[in-house]
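#lab-general

N.A. 3:47 PM
ok so I finally got the sequence cleaned up, no stray characters, all 152 residues accounted for. can someone with queue access submit it? mine expired

B.Y. 3:52 PM
send it over

N.A. 3:53 PM
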Amino acid sequence: MPDRLPPPGPSFLRAHEVHLGDRTFHAGMSQPTAGPDAWWLGVLWVADDEGVVSFTDVAPAGGPPPDPPLARLGPAMAGALSGLIREEDGRLAIRLAPVVPADDPTRPWRCPLAVRAAFGFEPARAATLRTNELAAQVLSAFRRSVEGLSRP
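B.Y. 4:20 PM
back already:
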């Protein structure tokens, strides 16, 4: 895998700034699509001028924790979108997966910070928002969740 991947494309919304100490990155997202069973699908990423950054670039200063980054990112995003995501069989309808998995499964933080995301939104809540408003909430939740990855 190369050190950096190019962004998956232009961001559907204006990129959000991700602030981590003295570094600034940009969070973007693909144009969302509607999937089967009313799932909302998209790709979210964090990049700088050289391309998509690695999860290690947003890890705590002491180094990445042993758990995979999506084990932290998923619950943070679910919390940030609380009340907007529907429940299915007692679980929140949110699925995140890396676009490119880590070459070494024992080092899950060493992969590009680009995520395939699927959300099942509460129909009544989602119906009150336009596509770009819903996308703005998702991108904002993603930005805040990525910023939280740097905390130990």
